[in-house]
Amino acid sequence: MPADAALVQAKWPQDECSLVFEDVCVRYLPHLPRALDGFSVSLKDREKDGLVGRTGSGKSTVMGTLFRLMELESGRILFGGVDIAGVGIGHLRRQITIVPQDPILFSGELRKNLDPLGVRTDAEVWAALKGCSLCVLVESLEGGLSAKVAEGGINFSVGERSVLCLARALLRESRVLCLDEATANVDPTNDKRIQEVLSQGLQDCFVLTIAHRLHTVLTCDRILVLERGYLAQSGPPASLLAQPGIFKELANQAGIYNVISDAPLPMQAEGEEVKSI
């Protein structure tokens, strides 16, 4: 697209940029209520945000609008000052990466899974693996980076697949990373790996995390609480826990009463069903 060529020349998005949702309304079908109803929020550069809300509140729809999986009924989304509706899909999606709740690897070499386009050097791939504490795991595989991945990645655990998908996201160097609670069904070891990457290895991008377990977003810069498609609450976790509202209700249900606690929070066993919030 001609517009994309201009964006590339302007080095969009710039190092310092914002992500703004302006009165965004989305309706999946004409006879259904709005999935997003006047959703508005302005996110600062490199901000880490947790999306929280009960089932059906609109959390996944927010991420869907970023990828332009659906047309907006009204409103707009500005990324780096540019309305993403005018950006080519391919160019836009190169700026955004998602690590889904059910991570999938495709059959073939492990390296191909991590760097599908083959644009990274082996040193860069190993650096991403080191950042996710995966070097020992990969070195133990027959063939290392050339190790074979079974269809769907079933020769790796759910936790290992999640962290490998996160390593792939790091290699893409996208400006926005979306996590659909990538730790929802992850074992404690890999959960720790992911949390360390989120807190230390993603300093140059926005991170939006859909929370199915509240403790995974307690270190975010800001919590965005959705209710029936609109922004019901917004603020740092400690502030929201200190005031009446949906977030405090959900936290109380989860047994969370303050952001910093000496008591360890219960971990989710791999394969155990997660109750959506």
What labels describe this entry?
disordered C terminus, globular, alpha/beta, Rossmann fold, ATP hydrolysis activity, 277 residues, six-stranded mixed β-sheet, P-loop_NTPase, four-stranded antiparallel β-sheet
In a few lines, what is going on in this structure?
Its main location: membrane. The protein has 277 residues and is α/β, with parallel strands linked by helices.
Write up this protein.
- This protein has 277 residues and is of the alpha/beta class.
- It has one domain (2-253): 3-Layer(aba) Sandwich (Rossmann fold), CATH 3.40.50.300.
- The chain is 30% helix and 21% strand.
- It has ten helices and twelve strands.
- It has helices at residues 2-9, 59-66, 89-93, 110-114, 122-131, 135-139, 158-172, 188-200, 237-241, 246-253; strands at 19-26, 36-43, 48-52, 74-79, 82-83, 96-99, 108-109, 148-149, 176-179, 206-210, 222-227, 230-235.
- The chain has a six-stranded mixed beta sheet, with helices on both faces.
- The longest helix is centred in the middle third of the chain and has 15 residues, at 158-172.
- The protein is globular.
- It starts with a helix and ends in a 24-residue tail after the last helix.
- Mean pLDDT is 87; it is low at 261-276.
- It comes from Polarella glacialis.
- It holds the Pfam family ABC_tran.
- Keywords: ATP-binding, Membrane, Nucleotide-binding, Repeat, Transmembrane, Transmembrane helix, Transport.
- It is a multi-pass membrane protein.
- It is found in: Vacuole membrane.
